[in-house]
Amino acid sequence: MARLVAFNEEQAVQKAMEVFWRKGYTATSMRDLTDAMQINSSSLYNTIGDKQELFKRCLHRYTNERMEEMEVRYKSPKSPLKALELYINDAVHIITTDPNSCLCLKATFEIEGDVPEIQAVINSYDHYRHRLLTHLLKSAQDLGEIPDDEKPEVIADYLGSIFVGWYNSLVLHKDKSKIVRMADLVKRQLKR
Amino acid sequence: MARLVAFNEEQAVQKAMEVFWRKGYTATSMRDLTDAMQINSSSLYNTIGDKQELFKRCLHRYTNERMEEMEVRYKSPKSPLKALELYINDAVHIITTDPNSCLCLKATFEIEGDVPEIQAVINSYDHYRHRLLTHLLKSAQDLGEIPDDEKPEVIADYLGSIFVGWYNSLVLHKDKSKIVRMADLVKRQLKR
DNA sequence: AAAATTTTGAAACAAGTGTTTTAAAAAGAA
DNA sequence: TTCTTTTTAAAACACTTGTTTCAAAATTTT
């Protein structure tokens, strides 16, 4: 054995993620990244790899963090409807208080399928969320908490789409009340 | 007087727009642009200006084109509800057949308010669409074609948000049927 | 303590970035 | 035709890009 890596990789990736999240993939330079991570580029290439590999790691970190939160917060609730309403309220809160719009969303529109490996990370996150929502919706239907005349899978897709639009709305209008009103509308729609 | 400009500015901006639309603002280089526009960079800087000015021109072209189409297609219909349903069907068609997702959307998530002049162009487009939808919704309510228990302004915001999500969904899943099913759901929701 | 192995910092790399310069070509006005 | 004004092409501009090189520093094993 010999010399050990001096920097904390987790912390460094976290710092890189924050820069990518703020500036986007292309507009972030390697200098921006090494400055924020406080490591030399040789160390970066030695441990993690190139810019794209680092971005993938950042995306993984971003999505894993969020999936773990979801796992504890919405799994096996007494009332699935209450969990769904909580989910919607959380979405409003995250969208209106996070410093930037969703990292995955920005990456999706920036990359648009040009880098399959990056798309795959985002897809698996999207799929997790879709499964979670579908499960809650189906349970709520089975319990008679919401009508069962629409397919849970379609409502899940539709909810996912709405949240994407809320991010866009906030960037354009910086008006939280718009999001809140839409959320109220969605919660009403869910039950009828 | 002296020598005239040799290239067609409209055509050149159209070509530039196509490149920006495909690659995004940052990832598009001036070389990419002058190659596509088939003009020298000195001519470009002489007539239009720098990269940002050119991008603004492209955005204007993109949004004006779409607003003019809307103006003729959805204005003063016999049935506002039919116009709304047409609007939704058109959205499905555009989203699933255009070569890239919306230029404004990509720019919004890429720029995120960092360039107010660019935001302003997108905002005015968004505002035009919002006014159009609100007007149709209000008319439909007044005629009793749809229930009037939700505010037209909020439904308009909500519809706008959904369309944004559809763009995202298509990039991620490349599955038109998902969009079609959501559109059917939305059309049903409108009427109840 | 010496040897072996790896990380690190600083500099260098070539290629690409947005933009400007310069002189020649073009064309209306005199 | 000549003068005047403007556009154009090609090259150059200084700077930034992502990535690599290389010797010096660091640390574990012998």
Automatic annotation (TrEMBL), chains A, B:
Keywords, sorted A to Z: DNA-binding, Transcription, Transcription regulation
Domain HTH tetR-type: 6-66
DNA-binding region in chain numbering: 29-48
InterPro entries documented for this protein: Homeodomain-like_sf, HTH_TetR, Tet_transcr_reg_TetR-rel_C_sf
GO molecular function terms attached to this record: DNA binding
Highest taxon listed in the record's lineage: Bacteria
Protein name, as recorded: Transcriptional regulator, TetR family
Species assigned in the record: Chitinophaga jiangningensis
